[in-house]
Write a structure and sequence with these properties.
Strand content: 5-15%
Structural class: alpha/beta
Radius of gyration: 22 Å
Oligomer: single chain
Order of helices and strands: HEHEEHHHHEHEEHHEHEEHHEHEEHHHHH
Shape: globular
Number of strands: 12
Distance between the termini: 36 Å
Number of helices: 18
Length: 439
Amino acid sequence: MSLRKRLSVSSTRSDSPLVFTAAPNAESEEWVNVWKQVLTRDIIDSPVVAVDAETSVEDACEMLLSKDLLCLAVKTPQGRSPQQSPFCGLFDFADVNAFLTLAATRHKISMDELREKPRVQEILKAARDGKVPAYLVSNLSEKNPLEVLPHDADIIALLSIFSRGAHRVLIQAPPPSTDYLGMVSDRGLLAWFTKYAEKTPTLLRYLSVPLASLALPSLYLYMAVVAAKASDTVLDAMKLMSDEGVSSVAVVDDETGGLLSAVSVTDIGKIVVPAQSNQILSTPLQQLIARIKEPDGSTDGVDKFPVYSVSPNNTLFYTMQKLLATNAHRVFVTEESPMSSSPSFSSMAPMNLCGIVSVVDVLSLFARIANVRDVDPTRMQRHRRASSTSSTESYRSSGSFAARSRSSSRTSLQRLGSVGSLEGFQIRWADRVPVPEPQ
């Protein structure tokens, strides 16, 4: 099982007063004035790909995999008012992970919990009827809310949304059109700020301080990190991400607690979903990581083993570049040098995991520079933790540990058998967890 507690404060942490709490007024005003002139439509980084509300979870997942997409927009079910948007929500790999976790751990949900979770009851009923529609699973992860901005909104408006934990925003076309121009991701906005800093010496200088000197709470340096042991199973990691409201978990050495690698909800979508057997769910994370890395470099001979870590001595700007280079939503902070680029999992030297920096953390910094109100990057994560779809305490072990704890073929969710598949979810659910009768 995955065991977690808060990490101890590292000895390398600076005890000096806050040195990075505010940008110089004159310079920051100049930056913000430039940002206000940049429209969201100018940094769109993906199209809006829509699916009907009644599309099955299998078909929606197949579309993510076969078209190499990260997110789908789910149309509003017939009979419901579309209100401001023709979409009722978004569907991504975090939702896939939450759904599979629910399916695989459903027998641990008590009747009292089910009565308090009407959405789970709807999913349960749909499964008994033979089909779970995508709209029921849209934002099941509670990490994927539907956010919409008009075509003439500036990037300050994006900062307002992303600094509260969202990851994507749909951009409307100019009226009277009801279409959408596309979608902007938090990574897309981070890429824009990175390029802007490269050509703005005053901002680049501001971002060129070591992480160890940062005292912004939103950066989580030396704070709690969600981690799993290398010997934990894939299902352990799936449940951990679902319960904790995170899109990836650190994988650490069983004995030393040193950082080895990471597993994300995207990895779950690309490796677990197409699996031929439910045995994938009981696979140790060390073996899963080897499978994740296996295709890297096999087609063009280039070593693409991702480096997920930075050190406290690295600058914030370097960390921004690392987030973009590794295509990760977060990087881990370690007291040793970043992990080797060797593709062999077993050859990695463990490192002292002491913190984490995410895309949302960095964008929250820019939001504070722009005087955005109510910056709270942990809002959605806290909400997810408070309303986990399964009983966390009954699943966790009581032990202690050093860390707190696309394929083009037909999506084969149904192949995961009696533990985690839609087939098992549909056929066997009624026998294992009856639906509470309405009172």
